């Protein structure tokens, strides 16, 4: 099964793919950027694609919402990953031995408290967490470290010098599973990702939300996005969950009178966020 990810093997996207498709034999296709990944999904070069969409600390990944709309990507599932950061380096080294550390800028930010203990350590931004591990190994930078996942350390045969160094331990990223050549949805859905553009009249968004409330449809996400070519017009990316699929169908029918367009990016099973208190990963 060919699954596309952004980043390299050992990245958090790689972890998300392995978790969602657990037990399946995967051929991971790595893409340098999200646009290239989205294009490959749309052109059906893959069976599935995995794309991060939001993080509990950094919030929504707005460019990826735009890519979903631009390439008309279809969602068939979701998976949550707890983001655990680790200081990785060459064998025999300790954190105090390092004069430089490489990682994605978001990873460096999320480990600020730990890194503040080492004021002489130069922080250097890199495109990808896992790839920063590969780079310091192949370049022979014995006085440098990288911040990435445990899987990256294992993959590139490097040592974990300090583990779980992220400042906020309740750090999760939600990844969407995009169908391309294949559609993994095989059970009655409980969640949907929608893009709704309301009519340009006062109170239309409120009307839509009231309909969802009346049909006992719960919103788990609402994100406004500018409409290209229409200054100060906005569409809304909305995630909804329900217990009764027929109530969801009725609600979707009822909101038509308040909207100009409704795009269903996908209906799928709800993902389960790891239970931090129980030590789940």
Automatic annotation (TrEMBL):
Residues 2-180 form the Prephenate dehydratase domain. InterPro entries: ACT-like_dom_sf, ACT_dom, Chor_mutase/pphenate_deHydtase, Preph_deHydtase. It catalyses: prephenate + H(+) = 3-phenylpyruvate + CO2 + H2O. Its EC number is 4.2.1.51. It is an enzyme of class 4 (lyase). Residues 193-269 form the ACT domain. Keywords: Amino-acid biosynthesis, Aromatic amino acid biosynthesis, Lyase, Phenylalanine biosynthesis. Pathway: Amino-acid biosynthesis; L-phenylalanine biosynthesis; phenylpyruvate from prephenate: step 1/1. Pfam families: PDT (PF00800). This is prephenate dehydratase. It comes from Reichenbachiella ulvae.
């Amino acid at each position: 099964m060919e699954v596309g990810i952004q980043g390299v093997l050992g990245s958090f996207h790689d972890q998300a793919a392995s978790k969602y498709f657990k037990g399946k034999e995967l051929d991971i296709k790595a893409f340098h950027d999200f646009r290239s990944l989205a294009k490959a999904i749309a052109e059906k070069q893959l069976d599935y694609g995995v794309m991060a969409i939001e993080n509990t600390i950094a919030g929504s990944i707005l460019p990826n919402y735009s890519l979903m709309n631009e390439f008309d990507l279809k969602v068939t599932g979701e998976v949550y990953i707890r983001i655990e950061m680790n200081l990785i380096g060459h064998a025999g080294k300790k954190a105090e031995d390092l004069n430089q550390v490489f990682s994605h800028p978001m990873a460096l930010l999320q480990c600020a408290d730990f890194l503040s203990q080492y004021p002489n350590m130069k922080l250097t931004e890199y495109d990808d967490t896992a790839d920063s591990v590969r780079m310091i190994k192949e370049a022979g930078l014995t006085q440098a470290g990288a911040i990435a996942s445990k899987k990256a350390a294992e993959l590139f045969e490097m040592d974990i010098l300090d583990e779980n160094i992220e400042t906020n331990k309740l750090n999760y990223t939600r990844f969407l599973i995009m169908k391309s050549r294949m559609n993994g949805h095989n059970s009655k859905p409980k969640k949907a990702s929608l893009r709704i553009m309301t009519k340009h009249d006062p109170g239309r968004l409120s009307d839509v939300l009231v309909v969802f409330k009346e049909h006992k449809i719960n919103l788990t996400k609402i994100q406004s996005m500018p409409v290209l070519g229409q200054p100060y017009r906005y569409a809304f990316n909305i995630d909804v969950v329900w217990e009764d699929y027929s109530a969801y169908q009725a609600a979707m029918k009822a909101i038509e009178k308040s909207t100009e367009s409704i795009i269903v990016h996908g209906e799928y099973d709800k993902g389960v966020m790891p239970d931090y208190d129980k030590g789940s990963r």
